Amino acid sequence: MPIHRRLPKLRRMPDGISRIGFIGVGGIGRPMAERLAETGYELIVCDKRADALRPFRHMALETTARASDCARADMVIVMVADDAQAWSVVSGDAGLLHGIDPDRPPLVAIMSTILPETVRRIAASLATKNAQTVDAPVSGGAVRASRGELSIIASGEAVPLAAMAPVFGSLGSRVFHCGVLGNGEAIKILNNSVAVTIQLLMGELAVIAEGLGLDLELLVEVMEASSGRSFVTGDYEMQKAVLRRIISDPALLRAHVDVCRKDLRLAQSLGIQQNVSSPLLDGVVASQREVPYEDCGTRWRSLSQQTPQ
């Protein structure tokens, strides 16, 4: 039986943002959208997948499969998986661009992790309808998204960033202002390349530690107090919870691995654009290209100390 949540009274912000169009409610997008609804914003939730929209219908929120329907909002958040999807939901058939009234355009925040050049291309397209765009990718994962504790890595013009500040404040505990449009994406991509590599490597090391008969909790404790410190060792209990959630569902595992691989490729693309040699990064990208999803799940099961079912 579906659970119907009692939503708080809708916000009426002094900056005029009370209704938000949220495009893309996947692994991170869903808890972000739920967080905004819980903190009082009116939402138009957009996703092509009917099953992704179902929880929001149970919350009595407006849902749609057409991004153009979100153009009626005061602000639109784009939180899709990759560059192609971001461009499609803005400029494709039934895309956001086609629904915008140039006299009353929404503010647009690209919160997906995509290339800076894609953000600038999207912004130029939206500018033809007088819509202002910022990029504000996030870091922290689904658990922190549900708590409103994400890091938001924003860049763009000061005026739209200031107007969006209350919304970002509902989603994140820290907002970084990174300069000109696209800088937020560049910083997020470089950050993710480190985080993804650590998560993959820690999975491999957990299997090695198991084989050696080592106490994994002790290994993590030593790493946290030593030169092996990372985001995994810094909050190991949370990381175990995150990994257990990921490996509990084959579709979720596949989606997470695909995002990890995508983020590594984006970092590699930035290096190529700058004509920078990055043999270590190239090696990580190549090594992960053909790893079966099940192998990633097995390694993360060891890292999360979950007993196989």
Q: Could you walk me through the main structural features you see in this protein, from its secondary elements to its overall organization?
A:
The protein is of the alpha/beta class and 309 residues long. Helices cover 54% and strands 12% of the residues. The chain has 14 helices and 9 strands. The protein has helices at residues 29-38, 50-58, 83-91, 96-99, 116-127, 141-147, 158-171, 183-212, 216-224, 231-234, 236-247, 250-273, 279-289, 293-303; strands at residues 19-23, 42-46, 62-64, 75-78, 107-110, 133-135, 138-139, 150-154, 172-177. The strands form 2 sheets. A 6-stranded parallel β-sheet has the order 3-2-1-4-5-6, sandwiched between helices. Strands 7-8-9 form a 3-stranded mixed β-sheet. The longest helix has 30 residues, at 183-212. It starts with 18 loop residues before the first strand and ends in a 6-residue tail after the last helix. Residues 182-283 form the 3-hydroxyisobutyrate dehydrogenase-like NAD-binding domain. It holds the Pfam family NAD_binding_11. InterPro entries: 6-PGluconate_DH-like_C_sf, 6PGD_dom2, 6PGDH_NADP-bd, HIBADH-like_NADP-bd, HIBADH-related, NAD(P)-bd_dom_sf.
